[in-house]
Structures are given as structure tokens and as C-alpha cells.
């Protein structure tokens, strides 16, 4: 078991025993969509990093931040350490609607060109050679933690794509024409039962971030997902949180310190109620 899989297993156990903790956190995260459509994604990284520090006693985490993006060798938002084994690993957190999910931006644009070298249909020995290529060296070791949400129903499901299992299940890769709303062709990956697993989108100079990289689909590729939350969790918008942010942006550091102390007390109270302290 990889350090990341051990972490997600422990994460799932914690949530199963204390669902109120993750429900509260998700409600606060998705309340940020009342401020802006993209705000929740950035704040989710901070929230989940702090969730790990507060409630998962055998783990510590650091929010890496966007300012280090260009220096990153891998896509990561949170760096986690297992305090028992001392294993360290990155996590890339995604907050996406229930549908297409980007697993990797392929920022060096190597995946699609490499697939083109193998042709329009890749299977058998060609598929084995592809997995040995550096362009696909990260496939099977992606530490993606997706918060998949349905805004209309106000539900969230933390669905982890099992790329290692997917890699072993894939039997063919097919180049397919652009579809509805798409400009560029894609390479789609299928398992032995001809079920969709994932896809690599075009990676050329005319492609934007949504038109390139490794993607899957939370509905079409569902057999290769595991729900960390045990299914969908219903969340609610906490409108007073928006007021809290508004006042915090006007308050002095002294005011922030007073508010922070009260918030820490509230977190400790949640720990006691959950038997975590």
C-alpha cells in the first residue's frame, strides 16, 4: 500500500466515524461559492490541509501555495507527512462539478504527442511499451483528492480515482474525433469490457488548460473511483461565514487574533464531541 493510499484509507475511517466534521468543513468550503465561482477551490486546499492537522493525529500537512507553482516538479497543493512512518507525499486537491475531472495538466505537453507516435489504436505490446515511457511514468502514482460537488442538490462526494487499478485494467487506447463542444481530438482509454476509463486531451499550442492533459469522468469512469465519504454528503451554505470574511477584511490584526482564539476553542469543542481529544 502506497503512503497516499494508506492516507485515504485513514481519511475514510475518520469520516465514517465522525461525519459531522467533514460535513461542517464541506459546508464552509462550498459557502465560498457565494463569494466567487473559483474561490472555493483555493480555500478548499487550506481547509483540507487544516482538517488533516486538526483531526488526523498521525499526519501533518502544509499548504504548498500557488506562488511555488512554477518550481514544482509535480502537481501538488498539500504536502503531507505520516508522523509514524515519516513518509512524505504530495496531494493535488480538485474541486470539480460532477462530470469531467482533470487529473493532470500535462504542463510539458508530452502525453498527447507520445500517443501520436504510437498511432490511432494502441493495445497489446504497444500498450506495454507506452507504460514504460517517461511521458506516462506518473500514471499509476497520481495523488489526486477530488471534492466532486453537485451545486444544485448541495451535495459533495470525495471521489478518488484509482489510477493504479485503472492502469492494470486498460486494454486499448483509441484516437477519437472531437465531440460536442470540442475542437481537438482525444485519446480515450478503455478496459477489457470496453468501458471508458480516462482520456488524454490535445496538448498543442492552441489548446487551453481545459483542452489538454489527462482527464477522466466521475460518471462515465465510476468503476475506477472510490468514495472516501462513503457516498454523497449533503452540505449547506453558511451565510454568516461570508459576513465573517467581510468583517475580517476590515478588522485589524488584533481583531483577527481575538477571532482566531475563539475559532480554535470551537474546534477543540468539536474534537471533544467526536472523542478525538
Number of helices: 8
Mean pLDDT value:
91
- β content, as a range? 25-35%
Residue runs with pLDDT of under 50 for 5 or more positions: none
Radius of gyration in whole Å, from Cα?
Answer: 20 Å
Structural class estimated from helices and strands = alpha+beta
Order of helices and strands: HHHEEEEHEHEEHEEEEEEHH
Shape: globular
Report helical residue fraction: 25-40%
Number of separate domains = 1
Number of beta-strand segments? 13
Q: Distance N terminus to C terminus?
A: 28 Å
Give the structure's gist in a few sentences.
The chain has 8 helices and 13 strands. A hairpin with a 4-residue loop joins strand 9 and strand 10 (196-201). With 277 residues, the protein is an alpha+beta fold.
Characterization of this structure:
The chain has 8 helices and 13 strands. The protein has about 280 residues and is an alpha+beta fold. It has one domain. A hairpin with a 4-residue loop joins β9 and β10.
Write the layout of secondary structure elements.
Layout: H1 3-17, H2 19-31, H3 39-55, E1 59-63, E2 78-82, E3 88-97, E4 100-104, H4 111-118, E5 121-123, H5 125-132, E6 144-150, E7 155-161, H6 163-169, E8 170-176, E9 186-191, E10 196-201, E11 213-217, E12 225-227, E13 233-234, H7 239-248, H8 253-274
Amino acid at each position: 500500500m502506497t503512503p497516499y493510499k494508506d492516507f485515504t484509507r485513514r481519511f475514510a475511517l475518520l469520516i465514517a466515524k465522525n461525519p459531522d466534521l467533514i460535513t461542517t468543513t464541506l459546508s464552509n468550503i462550498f459557502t465560498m461559492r457565494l463569494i466567487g465561482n473559483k474561490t472555493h477551490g483555493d480555500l478548499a486546499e487550506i481547509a483540507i490541509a487544516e482538517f488533516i492537522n486538526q483531526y488526523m493525529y498521525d499526519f501533518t500537512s502544509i499548504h504548498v501555495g500557488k506562488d511555488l507553482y512554477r518550481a514544482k516538479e509535480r502537481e501538488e497543493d498539500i504536502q503531507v507527512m505520516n508522523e509514524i512512518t515519516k513518509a512524505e507525499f504530495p496531494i493535488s486537491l480538485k474541486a470539480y462539478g460532477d462530470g469531467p475531472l482533470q487529473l493532470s495538466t500535462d504542463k510539458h505537453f508530452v502525453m498527447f504527442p507520445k500517443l501520436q507516435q504510437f498511432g490511432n489504436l494502441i493495445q497489446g505490446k504497444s500498450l506495454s511499451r507506452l507504460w514504460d515511457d517517461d511521458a506516462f511514468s506518473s500514471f499509476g502514482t497520481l495523488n489526486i483528492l477530488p471534492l466532486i460537488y453537485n451545486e444544485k442538490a448541495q451535495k459533495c462526494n470525495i471521489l478518488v480515482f484509482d489510477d493504479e487499478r485503472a492502469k492494470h485494467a486498460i486494454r486499448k487506447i483509441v484516437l477519437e474525433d472531437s465531440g460536442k463542444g470540442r475542437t481537438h481530438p482525444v485519446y480515450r482509454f478503455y478496459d477489457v469490457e470496453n468501458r471508458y476509463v480516462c482520456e488524454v486531451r490535445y496538448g498543442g499550442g492552441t489548446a487551453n488548460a481545459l483542452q489538454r492533459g489527462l482527464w477522466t469522468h466521475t460518471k462515465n469512469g465510476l468503476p475506477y473511483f472510490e468514495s472516501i465519504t462513503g457516498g454523497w454528503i449533503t452540505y449547506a451554505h453558511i451565510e454568516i461565514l461570508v459576513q465573517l470574511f467581510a468583517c475580517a477584511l476590515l478588522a485589524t490584526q488584533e481583531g483577527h487574533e481575538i477571532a482566531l482564539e475563539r475559532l480554535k476553542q470551537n474546534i477543540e469543542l468539536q474534537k471533544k464531541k467526536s472523542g478525538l481529544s
